[in-house]
Design goal:
Blueprint: H1 2-13, H2 27-35, H3 51-58, H4 62-74, H5 80-101, E1 126-130, E2 133-137, H6 139-145, H7 147-158, E3 172-175, H8 188-196, H9 210-220, H10 223-251, H11 260-275, H12 277-281, H13 284-291, H14 295-302, H15 312-328, H16 337-351, H17 361-374, H18 377-391, H19 406-409, E4 429-435, E5 448-449, E6 453-455, E7 458-465, E8 478-484, E9 495-507, E10 517-528, E11 533-540, E12 554-561, H20 571-574, E13 604-605
Helix pairs in contact: 3-5, 4-5, 6-7, 9-10, 10-11, 10-13, 11-14, 14-16, 15-16, 15-17
């Protein structure tokens, strides 16, 4: 049809070479088309193009083919004018004609579109054994992705029987049972998912497998997977360090040299865990990972002076979880003597990392009960001796005749958590820090307390209700009080009169160049048996609390006795002249057990 149109046009214009542009066709075809050139032909109405075919035709590159035909003609025929006419008419006509053919790929057979899978073994030619599992895989994909498999296959090909004629046997294989650590066997399938993936850049794995896959990629030389896991670990390192540390301990062989990447991850993970210890403990999956670390790693973490914990009670709660976790795994290990000895040794290692002098009385009582169930008697004595050393005024001399060095018992408190630039507390000041995740963390009326501190004869501690007291204050308020702790050596009618005290809540710097600040309130109060505490139910309103949260979620509070009132902190002075009791320019506080009867003024910021 197109030839018919072209010839008719050529004759009208007096151009003959257009007919010679088909000289590459068989003579019979040329003669048949030429004979019918003057006969009109009808288009087949069924040959209609789709939009997709029109687009394909317009950019299908068919014009170069027509141009090649014209060039072939030019090499043995007339000049360039005829060539141009043939190329133009042939290209345009051919493009339109191909669009009208309506050719479609027969998609009834979908096998050509399905990617190969390691799960079904179709067309497999390489067997991989990992433990008790066997995988029917594809040598080309393995060799392309892994230096290990490429080397293994090359070795297998090079050591084949030289007298054998023809290709290698169709089934070859690799045994990775001893190549990969046992803990990495379950991650091999994830590595296969990456190798067989058609879009490896979108490959995702959970954080609990990232380092295991990094180890697999390192051993098998899967560069793409190694780079992907390095990027995954870097992006989530600050949130998943305990998980990475737990995975590292599973793949690490004691005494063996780790790769540089794994060693760096291990060292940085320990450092980050130390500086975010309590925030990590607040996340269940991270706490689980930390509890199940080897005792040597736990000991390394707990020995750090700058361990981020609000109090030693947090450390004991964690150690208790570790000891109970070891006890719960005994039945699964057959409760063999070897396992019992190992578990007992692990328990004693972490037990001795608790700084017993700085544990609250309630937690110390729990510790004694725990030790009687899971530890040797020597461990109970260790804790008791450390506790006694705290109150013995003889200091290290009291333990000079003991085989154990005095430094074992004289344990300093851990480094306090404070905003940058805040000075350490004085002897008349009591610091209290706690981790705060929100008002839902505590029930309304639920109290937490600092360690008590002796100032003169009076023993005081900070009393905090993180979600407010149950006296009608708005839920989510931060209620803070200073509380006296009665001692058995005090007289029944003890009293510390007219003691001026203050409570401050520190605000952390939020940007470069900023310094810390504090909201401070003060009052005058007589502490006695029926008036143990004094403070404010609404020290911080619910809308204020977030302004005093540190970067890792800690709130820091400081209670203090004003230095000029220090003489009134002794029992002898408590019964003497009471000093000034008149109106104070500061804010009147109230007891934690009831609402203040005195009107309250606005808070003072300092």
């Amino acid at each position: 049809l197109k030839w018919h149109q072209a010839v008719g046009t050529s004759r009208q214009q007096g151009v003959v070479p257009a007919a010679q542009g088909m000289s590459f066709l068989p003579n019979s075809v040329v003669m048949e088309v030429t004979m019918n050139a003057d006969s009109p032909m009808e288009l087949n109405p069924s040959l209609e193009s789709s939009d997709e075919e029109e687009q394909l035709a317009s950019g299908s590159g068919r014009c170069p083919s027509a141009a090649m035909a014209a060039n072939d003609y030019a090499s043995c025929g007339p000049g360039s004018t005829a060539q141009g006419t043939a190329c133009a008419s042939g290209s345009a006509a051919g493009s339109r004609r191909s669009a009208q053919l309506g050719l479609h790929f027969n998609s009834s057979y979908s096998g050509g579109r399905s990617p190969l899978s390691w799960r079904d073994g179709t067309f497999s030619d390489w067997t991989v054994q990992v433990g008790e599992k066997s995988y029917q895989l594809h040598a080309f994909l393995l060799a392309r992705a892994s230096m290990f498999f490429r080397s293994h296959m090359s070795f297998a090909a090079g050591t084949a029987d030289p007298t054998m004629v023809g290709p290698l046997p169709s089934k070859k294989g690799s045994d990775l049972t001893e190549v990969l650590p046992l803990s990495c066997h379950s991650s091999f399938e994830d590595a296969l998912d990456f190798v067989y993936s058609e879009n490896q850049s979108a490959f995702e794995v959970p954080a609990c497998k990232a380092l295991l896959l990094l180890k697999v990629a390192d051993i098998l030389g899967i560069g793409g997977l190694f780079d992907a896991m390095v990027q995954r670990i870097q992006n989530t390192f600050s949130e998943t360090a305990p998980l990475l540390m737990e995975q590292y301990c599973r793949v690490h062989v004691p005494g063996a040299e780790d790769g540089q990447a794994l060693k760096q991850i291990r060292d940085e993970a320990v450092d980050l865990i130390v500086h975010k210890f309590q925030p990590f403990l607040a996340m269940p999956d991270m706490r689980y990972a930390l509890v199940h670390l080897p005792s040597s790693v736990i000991s390394e973490i707990l020995e750090a002076e700058d361990l981020a914990v609000a109090s030693e009670d947090v450390v004991f709660d964690f150690v208790q979880d570790c000891i109970e976790a070891n006890a719960s795994t005994a039945p699964s290990n057959g409760d063999s003597p070897t396992h019992q000895d190992s578990a007992l040794a692990d328990n004693e290692v972490v037990w001795q990392r608790v700084r017993w002098p700085h544990l609250s009385a309630g937690k110390f009582s729990q510790a004694m009960s725990l030790a009687q169930q899971h530890l040797r008697q020597e461990m109970v004595i260790h804790a008791l001796m450390a506790r006694v050393a705290q109150v013995d005024l003889g200091g290290s001399e009291a333990f000079s005749n003991m085989a154990t060095p005095a430094t074992t018992w004289m344990m300093p408190a851990r480094q306090a958590i404070l905003p940058p630039g805040v000075p350490q507390p004085l002897s008349t000041e009591i610091d209290f820090c706690f981790h705060y995740t929100g008002p839902e963390q505590y029930a309304c009326g639920e109290a937490i307390r600092s360690q008590p501190k002796r100032i003169g004869d009076v023993v005081l501690r900070v009393l905090v209700f993180p979600s407010g007291t149950d006296t009608g204050v708005a839920r989510g308020s931060l209620s803070i009080f200073l509380e006296a702790v009665p001692q058995v050596c005090w007289p029944r009618d003890w009293e510390f009169a007219s003691v001026r005290y203050a409570i401050a809540c520190f605000r952390w710097p939020t940007g470069s160049g900023e310094t810390w600040a504090a909201k401070r309130k003060g009052d005058l109060w007589t502490f006695k048996a029926n008036r143990l505490d004094r403070g404010w139910h609404d020290f911080l309103s619910p809308g204020e609390v977030h302004r005093y949260l540190g970067p890792e979620g800690f709130i820091c509070i400081r209670g203090a006795i004003e230095p000029e009132c220090l003489p009134r902190c002794f029992l002898l002075g408590a019964h003497g002249p009471s000093g000034p009791t008149g109106g104070s320019s500061e804010i009147s506080g109230s007891s934690a057990s009831r609402r203040s009867w005195a009107p309250r003024a606005a808070g003072l910021d300092g």
